Amino acid sequence: MKSILKSILFLLFTVNILSAQNIINSSHFQVMGARSLGPSTMSGRITSIEGILSDGQVNLYIGTAGGGIWKSQNGGVSFNPVFDKYCQSIGALAIEPGNAKIVYAGTGESNTRNSVSIGEGLYKTTDGGNNWQKIGLDSTERISKILIDPTEKKTVYAAAPGPLWKSSVHRGLYKTTDGGKTWNKILYVNEETGCADIAIHPTKTSTLFASMWQFQRKPYAFNSGGKGSGLFKSTDGGKTWNKITQGFPEGDLGRIVVTINPSKPSEILAIVEAKEPGLYISTDEGDTWKKLAATENITARPFYFSTLVYDPKDAKKVYRPAFDFAYSSDGGYSWSNTIIGGVNPHADHHALWINPNNTDIMYLGTDGGVYLSMNKGSSWQFLNNLPVGQFYHVSVDNQEPYNVFGGLQDNNSWMAPNTSPGGVTATDWRAIGGGDGFWVQPSLINPKIVFSESQGGEITRVDLSNGLSYGVKPKKVAGEEEHRWNWNTPIVMGASVKKNTAGQLQYNLYTAAQYLFKSTDDGRSWERISPDLTTDNKLLQKQSESSGGITGDNTSAENHCTIFTITQDPKNEQIIWVGTDDGNLQLTKDGGKTWNNLAAGIWKAGVPENTWISCIEVSKINPQRIYVTLDNHMYGDHKTYVVVSNDGGSTWTKFNSPEFTGFAHVIREDIVNPKLLFLGTEMGLFISLDGGMNWLRSKYQNMPWYNLVRDLKIHPKTHDLIVASHGRGIYIIDNLQPLREMIQSDLNKDFILYPIQSFKYNYGEQYPQPAENIAGWVGENKTVSPTIYYYLKQRSNDAVKIEVYDANNKKIKDLNGTGLKGLNKVNWGLTINPPKVAQGGFIAGSSVLYSGFIAPRVPVGKYKIVVNAEGKKSEQFLLIEANPQKGLTASSIALLYQQSMRLYNLQEKLFVLVDSLDKTIATISKSDTTELKTKDQLKKLDSFKREIIELNRKTIFFDEFKYRRRLSDLYLAVAMAIEPLSVKQEKGILLLEEEFEALKKQFYALIATR
Amino acid sequence: MKKFLFSFTLIVMSVFSASAQTADEIISKYVSAIGGAEKWTKIQSIKMEGQIEVQGLAIPFTMQGVQLKGMRVDAEFQGNKIIDIITPTQGWSQNPLGGKYTLSPLTAEELKTKADDLDIQDPFVNYNEKGSSVEYLGKDEEDGNEYFKVKLTTKNKNDKTFFFDTKTYLIYKVESTTTQQGQEMKVAVKYLDYQTLDFGVKIPFKQDMGMMMMVNKKITVNAVVDENIFSGK
Q1: Do B182 and A73 make contact, defined as CB atoms within 8 angstroms?
Q2: Domain of A865?
Q3: Nearest-CA distance from A49 to chain B in Å?
Q4: B-side interface with A, Cβ within 8 Å?
C-alpha cells in the first residue's frame, strides 16, 4: 500500500515538473540577463563590411565570424548589434544602392579555416536591421558574396561556396529577380564545387564573372582546388557561361578572386590559386588575361584571403587586404605594404569598404576587428568598440572579485576581473600569452601563476609576480612517437589541492598530445601517464603531406588523432577521463596505470562511431553521473550529440530535443541542483530544468539566440554561470539561485514571491577607473543591492507595486515592479523614499534639486517586503546585515542613518514652513494690497522668504547659499556618505536645526502681527 | 464522429486564420477591441491627468489635446514647470532642469518626431485617411509570448512597430525609432491597464517606459480645451 502511494506521489511529482517544463521557455527568466564583458580591445574576425551614406552619415554594417551583424550610423564611432535572433556566422552583406534600409545578409562565413562556423541561409531587412526575414538558400551553409544589380535593384546574385565538410548540391551561383522571393541556381559545376566570388559590370550589368571553387575539409586536412574550379563569364545575366582559359594558368585551379575596375570596366583583376599562383589582368573585359608580378601577400593562403578592391574613383588604385594590407597605385602592376604612423592593423584581412564620397577613408576588417584609415591605407587606427572576440575556453579563479581567463582565436590569451570600478573596460583585459589562444588556467594555489598556450600545445607558465613567461610544453622522450598536439590542446587542472610528502601544497596539472601528461610542479616536469589514447589511425595523420591542396597549407590546425579533452574526477584524482578528436573515450581509475576505452557504449546510444569528443563533465553531486558532448561536424554532420551515463560510464543515453541545433561543445551540471543543465553548441545555449528530458533555447538572457557557446563554467563561490562565446566574448549570468528556486516552485500558481537572499551591506567599487576615452566596450558590473524575485504565471496587465516596511511596520519605500511573465527581479538600492523639499526658485544643477530624489539608506535589520501583483499581496522578510570586513559595522551604518534622517526631517519641516509661507503670501495678496500695512507685511514676508529660498539664482552658473541650499548641501553629503560624520562634524547638523527653529519663530512672529 | 468533425473544423479554421492574417484584419480587430472607429472619430479633444512615477517619486502632469490642432503637456517637479507644446507647424518646450528656462522652439527633427501626437484619436482609426500606411511584419516572439507585428508609417514619415496581442488584439508594445542627426534611437513603450471610459473607448491607463511609468488618473474625452494654450506664449 505504502509503495503504491509512493509511486502515485512520484508520478504526480514527475507530471508536475514535466508540465512546468512545458509551459516554460527562457523568457520566463529573462531577468537573469547576462553581463557582456567583452573584450573589445581584442576584437574578432570580421568577414564583411558594407557602408552607405544616409542622412549625411556614414552607415556601416559589419558582418562577423561569430558575433552577428553590427550597425553604425556614425562612421564607426559606435555600433549596435542588429542580428541577435539569428545565426551569428556572417558570410556576406549587401546594401541596396541608394537605400540604407534594405540590406541582405548571407549567413555562413567563407574564410574556411578549421574553426569556421556554419550558416543557415540568406536574410533581408527593409528597415535598417530592426526586422529580418529569411529569404532562402537555407542549405548552402555559407555565402561568400551578395551583389545587387546597380540598375535593376530587385536582381540580386548570391555566391555560395556551400557546405565545407561534405559534398552537396546546395552550392553555386544563385540569382533572384524579385528581391529575394524566388531564387534560381544559374551556375553549378558539381557537388564539390561552389561559387566563391562574383563581379558585375557597373554599367553593362548583364556582364558577370563568377569564380567556381572546389574545396573540402576533413578533420585532418583540407583540399583547395580541383577540376571544378575556374573563372566563368556571362554576357546575358547568367543564362549562359564561358569558362575563361586564355592566358590563365594550366592545370587544376583553386580559389579565384575577381574584381572589375569601376572607373574602367574593361580592366579586370583576378588572383588565381594554381600550382603557381598569380595575379592576372585582363584589359578586354575578361576575354584574354596576362600574368602580373605579385608579392607573396597578393597570392598567399588563397583559401583564407579573398579580397581585392579597386578604389571607387581612381582607376589606378587597387587594394589587396590579405595577410598584410597591400596597395597599388598603378592598377596592380606594383605593390607596397608600408604602414606609416598609427597602429599596424591586425594580420589576416577579409573585408574592405571605401567611402565613395571620400576615398581616403576606408574601413578594414581583420581577424582582430575593424580598422579605420583616413589616408588610403597608409596609417590606421583601431575601432575599440566591437566585442566580437572568439573564445575557445574560459576559466575562473577564487579571487575577490574573481578573474576570468580565456584564449581567443588569433587574438592571444587574456584575463580580466569579472567586475571593476565603473564596469569592466577594454583596459581591464590583460594579455597573458600570444598567438591563437585556447585554454588558460590559473594555478589552484598561487594566484600569480597562470598557464596559457598558443596553437599546437605551446604551453607557457606566466608568473604575474615577475612578468615572465616560461615555456613548459612536454618534450618528446625515448620510446615516444612524435607528439601530436591538437590545435586547441587541453590544459586542465585537477580539482583538488593536497600536500606532498614535504608538506607543500600541490595540485595536478594535465595536458595531452596523443599521450596524457601530468605535472605536480607547475609544468617544470611532466610524467606521461598513458599510452597513445587515440585510435592512432595513420590514414588520419597525413596532413603534412597533403593538406592545403594546390597551394599546400600545413599549420597545426589540422593535427589529428590527438587528445582534445581531459577531466579529472572532482573528488578522486585516480579517476581521469580523456576524450580524443578521433572518438575515443578513455577512463583510468588508477591514476593512469590502466585505461579503458568506453566509446562503444556511446555509439550504442545513437552517436556515430568515432565522433570527436568535445567535453566530458563529471557530476559534482554524483560521481557516477557523467555527461559527454560530441562533435561530428567535420564529417558533415551538424547534429547535437550529448549523452549521459548514470553508472560511471558503462551505459549511455542520448539527450534529444527538437530545440537542438549546432554541434555540441560543452555541457555543465549545476553544482547544487543536478536537474539544471547547461549545454553549449555552435548554435546556442540550451538549458534543461529537468535533468535533460526537455531543453529550451536561451533567447532572453541578453545574448544572441544562436550564440556560439564554446565553454561554460559555474563559479564555485558566487554560483555565476560564465559563458565563453566564439564571437561575442565572455558573458556572465550572475547567481543561478533564483533559477533554482523557480524550477522548484509550483509554477501553476499565479504569483509567487520567493524568499529574499539576505544582503550584506556593500557598495559597488568606484575607483580606480581608466580614462573614459580608452575604455572601449564596457561590461556591466554585478548589482550590489538586495534583490527581490517573484514569479507571475501570466504577464501582468497592471503595474506591480512593491512596498518596503521597517521594523515598526512603517512603509519607507515604494518601488515599481515589473509585470513580466515568469521571473521578475527588482533591486532595492537600500534607500527610503526621498524627502519633500521646499519649493521655489530655480534649482537646476543644485543640491536642492537632487535632495528631491536622493534619500538616506536604511540601517541593518529586518525589513518586510510586500509585493502587490495580480490583485494579491505577498510578503517576505529581508535581512540586511553589517559588513565589518568592509568597515560597514552596524553601529556606523546606524549612526549615518540617524544623521541623515535628522537632515531629512529638517528638509520636510522646511517644506511645510515654506508651503505655509507661500499660502500666507497668497492669502494676503488677495486682500487689499494698496493698504500700507499689507504692503509692508508682504514685503517682510518676501524678504523672509529670500532668506530661505535662493530666489536670485537664475542659471546653473550662479550659486546662492540661502538656508535651503545650505541644508541641501549637508543633507546630500550625509545621505550619500559611506561613513557617518565625526562628533565634531556632526555639530553642523545641530547648527542647521537651531537655525531652523529660529526661522520658525521668525515666521510665527511675522504672521502674528497680522 | 461529431467530435472528430469538430476537431477537424478547428484545424481547418486555425490554418485558415493563420494564413489569412493581414495587417488590415489585425487593425480592424484592434479598433473594435478599443471601442470602434465610430466612437473614436467623435473624439475631438482630450484631457489626461496623472503622474509620472520614477522609483518613489511622482511627478504630476496634465496633457491636453485638440485633434490635429495642438497638444500640450504640463508637468511640475519641485516647482519647476516642464512644458511641451506641438502644433502642426511649430513646437516649443520648456524644461528648466535641462537648461530651457522658458519656452524654446523645437527643431524641425524634434517636431517631426512628435507631430504624430497631434492625432489624439488612435493612430489606427482611419489610418488610411490620415495618410498612414501599414505593413504586416509577421508573428514574432517577445518576452516569450507571440505577437502580431505591424509597422505603421505615418504621413510625417515616422515608423513605429506595434505588437498586438494575438488573443485580445490589444497593443502590448510599441517600438519607435527616432532619428536625430542621422542617428537612430529606439524607444519601447509597453501599454498596461486598459480601461474603458464612460465614452465607450478603451485606453491604456499606464505606459511603461522601463525606467519610468506614466500613470493616467483621469481621462476626459471632448473636454473643453482653450486653444490659446498652444500659442507658445
Answers
A1: yes
A2: 772-1008
A3: 19
A4: 53-57, 77-80, 96-99, 101, 137-138, 140-141, 143-145, 149, 151, 159, 161, 172, 175, 177, 179, 181-184, 186, 192-194, 206, 208, 213, 215
pLDDT > 90? residue A547:
no
State which CATH number among 3.40.50, 1.10.490, 2.30.30, 2.50.20 fits the domain covering B23-230: 2.50.20
- 3-class DSSP assignment, residue A524: coil
Classify residue A781 by burial, with Cβ atoms within 10 Å: 0-12, 13-18, 19+: buried
Q: Minimal Cα–Cα distance from A78 to chain B, Å?
A: 10
Examine the domain organization and report whether A716 and A854 are in the same domain: no
Measure B155 CA to nearest chain A CA, in Å. 17
Based on the structure, what is the number of domains in chain A?
Answer: 3
Bond from prior residue into A39 cis (ω within 30 degrees of 0): yes
CATH no. for residue A917? Answer: 2.60.40.4070
User: Dihedrals φ, ψ of B90, to 5°?
Assistant: -145, 165
Residue that finishes a domain, picked among A382, A407, A422: A382
Residue A761 lies in a domain: no
Chain B residues in contact with A55 (beta carbon < 8 A): 179, 181-182
Specify whether A604 is located in the same domain as A666: yes
Domain end marker among A347, A362, A382:
A382
Residues A439 and A363 in one domain: no
Substitution target from A29, A79, A843, A850 for chain B, most B beta carbons within 10 A:
A843
Judge: A843–B78 Cβ closer than 8 Å, yes or no: yes
Cβ of B192 within 8 Å of Cβ of A798? The answer is yes
Q: pLDDT, tens digit, for every residue of A403-454?
A: 999 999 999 999 999 999 999 999 999 999 999 999 999 999 999 999 999 9
A73 contacts B183? CB cut-off 8 A: yes
Cα A821 to Cα A818: distance, rounded to the nearest angstrom? 9
Chain B interface test: which of A59, A61, A70, A73 (most B C-beta within 10 Å): A73
If you average pLDDT over every residue of chain A, what do you get? 94
- Tens of pLDDT, residues A458-477: 999 999 999 999 999 999 99
**How many CB contacts within 8 angstroms connect chain A with chain B?**
107
Same domain, A400 and A356: no
From A590-604, B105-119, B130-144, the region with the lowest mean pLDDT: B130-144
pLDDT of residue A930: 81
Question: Domain for residue A78, yes or no?
Answer: yes
ipTM: 0.79
The answer to whether the Cβ–Cβ distance between B182 and A54 falls below 8 Å is yes
Q: CA-CA distance, A122 to A100, in Å (whole number)?
A: 18
pLDDT, tens digit (0-9, with 9 covering 90-100), for A769-810: 999 888 899 999 999 999 999 999 988 888 899 999 999 999
- The alpha carbon of A146 is separated from its chain's Cα centroid by a whole number of angstroms, namely 27
Same domain, A324 and A429: no
- The verdict on residue A26 lying in a domain is no
SS3 (DSSP) at A640: coil
**In this complex, do A74 and B145 lie within 8 Å of one another by their Cβ atoms?**
no
The pLDDT of residue A982:
97
Residue B14 has pLDDT above 80, yes or no: no
Q: Do A105 and A81 share a structural domain?
A: yes
Q: CA of A25: which chain B residue's CA is closest?
A: B144
CATH number of the domain at A522, please.
2.130.10.10
Which chain B residues contact residue A843 at CB under 8 A?
Answer: 78-80, 96-97
Contact indicator for B184, B178 with CB cutoff of 8 Å: yes
A222 and A360 fall within a common domain:
yes
CA nearest to B208 within chain A: A799
Residue A576 in contact with residue A590, Cβ under 8 Å? no
pTM reported for the whole predicted model: 0.92
